[in-house]
Amino acid sequence: MTSIADIEIPADGTGTGELFEAAPSLTCEMERVIASSGHGLWLSGPSQDTIETAMDDASAIGAYSVISSEDDNDRWLYDIEFEPDTIDLFEVVLEEGGTVLSASASSNTWLLSIRFADRESVSSLYDRLDNDSLTPTVVRLFDLAEETNSQCGLTPRQYETLVAAIDHGYFEIPREVSMQELSKELDISHQALSERLRRAYRALVTSELNVSEDETVAPPMPSD
After folding, report:
1. Taking Cα atoms as reference points, which of 50, 23, 5, 31 lies closest to residue 106?
2. CB 141 within 8 A of CB 4
3. Domains defined along the chain, listed by start
4. How far apart are CA 159 and CA 182, in angstroms?
């Protein structure tokens, strides 16, 4: 049964620990999709010069490069590679069979939302992090059962499609994957994906707003 775990992990001892020591006001956010050998992290808080000086001085960080920036928010997207002997949180999660749904850090603490195939995998990751003296804290843990899907009015395929869309950044602004690319990933036609998403949206809206199917039918347009 699929499980979702929200886990807090102090940055000390990880690849970003030295960055927070050098720049305590730093905030980090993982980029969902990035085509590189490293990790995409949005960094903000201090000035760009302060951030890059901290990365230059950090023994855990190897190569890095700027990919994008948001001048209005003073936020920069970096492709960062950690040194081989560094504890890389994202790689550890992958090795333990998890998928990082989101990850952000501030005040020297990471908060990761991770999807696992079962609770045993959650325990395995927890033990591994604890053995590495990273003192993880499970903030929330819940299972995604088929009953949850039906309560929202979603079919299993609709649910799987929405999860895939989230994982691939379809709902990000701007979108990180097109509908055409997502349809290829799911091995269905563009039209089938569009129809499945529309039905899923309708099911979610109907469920969340607690309205009946009759109430979702648009009223007739007034005649001239």
Report:
1. 23
2. yes
3. 2-143 (no CATH), 146-210 (1.10.10)
4. 15
Q: What value does the CA radius of gyration of the chain take, rounded to a whole number of Å?
A: 21
**pLDDT at position 190:** 87
Enter the pTM of the model: 0.66
Burial 120-158 (b: 16+ CB within 10 A, else e): ebbebbbebbeeeebebeeeeeeeeeeeebeebbbeeeb
Asked if residue 160 lies in contact with residue 210, where contact means CB atoms within 8 angstroms, the answer is no
In angstroms, the first-to-last Cα distance of the chain is: 56
Phi-psi region of 174 (alpha: psi -120 to 50; beta: other; left: phi over 0): beta
Q: How far apart are CA 157 and CA 134, in angstroms?
A: 37
Read off the pLDDT of residues 176-210 as tens digits, 9 standing for 90 and up.
Answer: 889 899 999 888 888 889 988 988 888 877 766 65
- The dihedral sign for the CA sequence 155, 96, 134, 60: negative
Q: Which residues pair with 66 in a beta bridge?
A: 78
